[in-house]
Each structure stands twice: as C-alpha cells, then as structure tokens.
Amino acid sequence: MRDDALGCDELTRTLAGLGAAGGLFTGLALGSLYHGLHYTPRRMGRSALLGAALGSAGFALYTHLWEPNCSRDNRRHRGERVSVVQEAVDWLLER
Fold first, then answer.
1. Is residue 46 part of a domain?
2. Is the residue at 76 inside a domain?
3. Residue 78 in contact with residue 70, Cβ under 8 Å?
4. Section 55-70 average pLDDT
5. Are 89 and 12 within 8 A, CB to CB?
6. Alpha carbon separation from 78 to 5, 8, 71 (Å, rounded)
7. Residue 3 within a domain
8. What is residue 41's three-state secondary structure?
9. So what's the pLDDT on residue 2?
10. Are 90 and 53 in contact (CB under 8 A)?
C-alpha cells in the first residue's frame, strides 16, 4: 500500500458522508413517489432520514468489506485497528 493512500477510517467516513447525502435525496424522491399527494413535511423528514441512514450504512459496509484499503494487512501496516465488521466476517467464514 502506498504511504500517501487514504486510510480505511478516512475512506469510510468520506464514503459514508457521500452515501448519506445521496440517500437523503433518494429518500425524498422515493417518498414523494410512494405517498403521492399526501406527502406531508413529517413524512418528508422521515423519508429523508431513513434514506440518509441506509445510504450511510450501506457505503460504510461496502467500504469495510470490499475496499482494498480496508484489508487486514493494509490496516495493520497503517497501525489502524481491525474493524468489528471484518472480525465478524472472518468468524463466519471460519465456520
């Protein structure tokens, strides 16, 4: 791994923020399609928050599981701790 490459923690934070922003707008659009003319501000807020939470969690999970920067060897090289998600996946794969 290059020394100037992003670490896993920084990459996860960046991608989770992008996922939250994209999920917010996607939640608004899908909420308006689902509720139609009965799309109140309360429903709008719930749709936006749910979309942001799902987008952020999805991108964070993607980053930890499939990004090369978050592999066990790269995290050890940079001195970062191994994530709980990777420990759980490793535990499941051992069985």
1. yes
2. yes
3. no
4. 88
5. no
6. 10, 9, 11
7. no
8. helix
9. 67
10. no
Domain of residue 34 covers 8-94
Name the E strands within 1-95. Answer: none
> Looking at the 3D structure of the chain, how many domains does it have?
1
Cα–Cα dist 23/60, whole Å: 13
Cβ atoms 80, 7 nearer than 8 A: yes
Within a domain: 19: yes
Identify residue 49 by its one-letter amino acid code.
L
Percent of the chain with pLDDT over 90: 43
Residue 2, both tokens: 């290059």
More confident residue, 72 or 68: 68
For the cut 80, the answer to whether the pLDDT of residue 16 exceeds it is yes
User: Residue 33: pLDDT band by 50, 70, 90 thresholds?
Assistant: very high
Provide the phi-psi class of 91: left if phi over 0, else alpha when psi is between -120 and 50, else beta: alpha
